[in-house]
């Protein structure tokens, strides 16, 4: 069973990871947009929008920031579905984070550290912030007086979401919020990787490598699998730049783009809209599309309008496990959801 552990510095800590897809949607969804905010990050991704890779036995630091004084609870969902409670724990019990400050785990000077270990698979770190302390006794507990970390009874992402939804249900909706960070762990024999620097002479340029958007320009991207890939650099008002780039193991490849030919502005096309019928036998269930509440299941269904592309569907209903899945929409269609209890 994969564990994210905190242990004294003389020992090692372990956790695991890997990742197919990044999603901005948190594991547990607040149906409102409270003025309380929380962010959780791992040390290789300060933006929170990427999925950095860690090698076996490499150290990792988790940080969290809130805009108001709040109690922060951290959980790690492992690839095998087990869940670890990172905070609070008996090595770092204080989980009150002051407004507009960042708390790291481990913090400088702590006598413990994190390292990562197998199995390979995607890990998700959930931060749940509340203006008042939460009682987690129903989902986690310290089994013995020697245990430094609580054991979480909930299993899988959906199970954790359902358990935490029950805990926060009595709270005012504007008093809690959550965020999720992702990271991966390389195989025991990691693949050869290199780095890519893309520089441009204009602001707001974006870089897409092998069909996957990396982010902005004038940035060095590390831990890229060695190989030859198509690259596209785009900037508002300029023609796209496309070429092929070779990422070499152990070195940095430089791509410098000089945008010169301005494209005449044109009205932005209206994205294609499709009607998706979400069918379920659980009347009264609440449906969220990309983190925004779309409506409630009535008479066995709910019709939603979405753009072409990938969308995350979440359905929450009392007495049922929270349903979370991602669908690629390219035409009108129907999605049937049968949540389990």
UniProtKB/TrEMBL annotation:
Cited InterPro entries: Carb-bd-like_fold, DUF4384, PEGA
Keywords (A to Z) from UniProt: Signal
Domain of life of the organism in this record? Bacteria
Entry's PANTHER family?
A: S-LAYER-LIKE PROTEIN
This chain's protein is named S-layer protein
Does the keyword Transit peptide feature in the UniProt annotation? no
Q: Which GO terms describe its molecular function?
A: carbohydrate binding
Cite the DUF4384 domain residue spans from the record: 54-133
Q: Residue ranges of the PEGA domain?
A: 194-261, 274-337
Secreted listed as a keyword: no
Q: Where is the signal peptide?
A: 1-18
Q: Which Pfam families match?
A: DUF4384, PEGA
Gene3D superfamilies in UniProt? Carboxypeptidase-like, regulatory domain (2.60.40.1120)
